[in-house]
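Table S4 entry, N-acetylmuramoyl-L-alanine amidase.
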Amino acid sequence: MQYVCYKGQALKVGLVYKKLLASSVLATTLLLVTISSAQVYANNAIESVRLWSAPTSTRVVFDLKDKPDYSFFSLRSPNRLVIDFNDSGSQVSFKNLTKSDHRVKKVRTSTPKNKASKRVVLELGDTYKLVVFPLAPTGQYGHRLVVELHDTVQAKQAIKSKTVDDNRDVVVAIVAGHGGDDPGSIGYAGSYEKHVTLAIAKKLAAQLNAKSGFKAVLIRTGDYFVRHERKPRMARENRADLLISIHADAFTSSKPNGASVLVQSARRANSEFTKVIANRERESQLLGGAGEIIKNTQDDNLAVILADMTKEFTTQSSYVFASEALSELKKVTKLHKTKPVGLSLAVLTAQDIPSVLIETGFISNPKDEKNLNSPTHQKKLAVAITNAILNYFNQYPPKGTLISATSSLTHRVKRGESLSIIAQKYRVTIKSIKKANNLRTNAIKIGQVLTIPKR
């Protein structure tokens, strides 16, 4: 929930000016000094304060008149975060700002370190991981100072073991793009991308949760912001088998329209791979089952080979699912790109989870924007993506899942296909297909229905 507190009137300069002007030349000089000082102090004036609560974090945003000039420190017993805004003379009310947040109990001012600064104190409910950083102007926002408080859950506790459970659900992490003080793109008629993506994500989750053997996990459930690097980590904590990030595209022209599906670019994938190898003690958790081996092995070559195999599997799987998603989306909407597009995207950096970003349409296009805000069209998109998920996991069921134990898969032979191509598609051997179908040779016919054995 968002609470916005606007600054009060700093000085009634006109009234002061009239009184001083009537007094003396000395008073007039004093007036000039007062105005000059107020202008200096206002260089870093706090114009408003906003607070966003999320399930595992809280974000406080200070909107500033100019580039933040600040320092901060934390205190214990009780827990507090103290921020000094230099050259700030604004008056901001913090009343009711934190009434629905348990991490920030109170925001107040305190005695500043000097007359030209403003000291703000956040009284905290517990010990949190604190992140404080400035943001440059963008879109409707000016200069900002952001304070993030994250629940302190150790990575080893938060990241659940990926041991195989018999008949577990296939888990799909769904990321609704943007949120909180990041509205995303703003549509031709003024709608916000963050609202559209959350609506589609919730409908997708509802569709998927209605399917036996599948479980959807919403990374964002409300109007708040989740840092990009947190999204794949949260997916991993929930043992996700697939990550889907929902977005709406935009362009400076209102003409482009249609949906696209994006995958991680080869350059970014290789860059993330290099990070894992260089910091394998810290980053091995990003590689699922192979992580512990990579972390503990003394053989550098083995570590590189295992990490590379994990990356290649994830990259290939992401592309296969992206193609499946496009096949289903084209049944309900126009496509902007007919093949998966590779881009460098922070949300798709998981080395062990196939991940895609789906641009559901152009919010900058009037027709697309109208459709994206339509519950009926949102449901069509959700159903199409759900069908893509079902098709993909019916072909490639993860080991230990209910679908891998119960699925019976068949394939109708198409023109140009051979046993070798079909075996590669389903990641089984030619020998196993021949055995399952009582084939003596590799000869198959167009239209022939083959039983695909379980892996």
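Residues 137 and 143 are 5 Å apart (CA to CA).
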